Automatic annotation (TrEMBL):
Superkingdom per UniProt: Bacteria
GO cellular component entries: plasma membrane
The UniProt record lists the keyword Cell membrane: yes
Source organism: Neisseria animaloris
Record-given protein name: Probable membrane transporter protein
Membrane topology annotation: Multi-pass membrane protein
TM regions (residue ranges): 75-95, 101-119, 139-167, 203-225, 232-250
InterPro entries (alphabetical): TM_pro_TauE-like, TSUP
Length: 257
């Protein structure tokens, strides 16, 4: 087996594990793809391979989560449909909107999320037992549109944004929030694939083994998340935010100089 493929599979497994447990798997998988795939592979194909593998891992994680964690289906299903539509629309607008200007805004949002989570020790630690109100359901649909659009247009940090929304605005514990975020994330990945696959932007010789590695990592990551519970996920969530803040900060600093 090619050494580049072996290295990519290792990163694919770790990305699937990370993504299932707390999100942010793309931070590992996308750089790995750019560093291991031949230079002749177009950027659109790199992103298509990444989305196919990510969809596979997220699908497995979603199945694992919903078998053990109750999620608010009444709000999630319509929100997922709206997120799918918004994500596809965002992907179509990538060529027309200056997405680089989103990085400073997302950096600020991530920093605020970290500070809020750090100081609010009980955030996401209590299991909600009541149903969502109509107002909360409507708010969930709105967030589905906004975050779905962001995922199609830009992408990084989508899982973290979703998890924070479910914890902060709907008072869910981190475990339920992570499971719910996977459902929305699954549909936004599917929206991207509905563009990449028909336009032949996926190199299957790389995408299929990477998807298998990502899927395997998703199984392990979901097991760790469920076993660790909300306390583990709170710390993992803050750790991921630190990584995202560092990544966006470095990108902005590099672009400035």
């Amino acid at each position: 087996m090619d050494s580049h493929l072996i290295l990519l599979l290792v990163f694919g497994f770790l990305a699937g594990l990370m993504d299932a447990a707390v999100g942010g798997g793309g931070l590992l998988q996308i750089p790995a793809l750019f560093n291991t795939l031949p230079a002749s592979v177009p950027v659109t194909s790199v992103m298509g391979i990444n989305k196919f593998a990510s969809f596979s891992g997220t699908f497995m994680a979603s199945v694992q989560f919903i078998r053990k964690i109750p999620v608010p289906w009444k709000m999630l299903l319509p929100a997922a449909v709206l997120a799918f539509i918004a994500s596809y629309g965002g992907a179509k607008l990538v060529a027309y909107l200056p997405v680089q200007y989103l990085k400073p805004a997302i950096l600020v949002i991530m920093a605020v999320m970290f500070v809020y989570t750090f100081f609010k020790k009980d955030l996401g630690q209590v299991v909600r037992t009541t149903a969502l109100t109509r107002k909360e359901t409507a708010l969930g649909l709105l967030f589905g549109v906004l975050i779905g659009f962001y995922d199609g247009l830009f992408g990084p940090g989508t899982g973290s944004l979703l998890a924070f929304v479910f914890v902060r605005f709907f008072a869910y514990d981190f475990l339920t929030a992570t499971a719910s975020a996977k459902i929305i994330n699954l549909t936004t990945n599917l929206a991207a694939l509905s563009f990449f696959i028909p336009n032949n932007h996926i190199v299957w010789a790389w995408a299929l083994p990477l998807a298998l590695a990502n899927l395997s990592g998703g199984i392990v990551g979901t097991h760790l998340a469920i076993r660790g519970g909300s306390k583990f996920l709170r710390y993992a969530f803050m750790a991921l935010l630190c990584v995202l803040i560092g990544k966006f900060g470095w990108d902005l600093l590099h672009a400035a100089y």
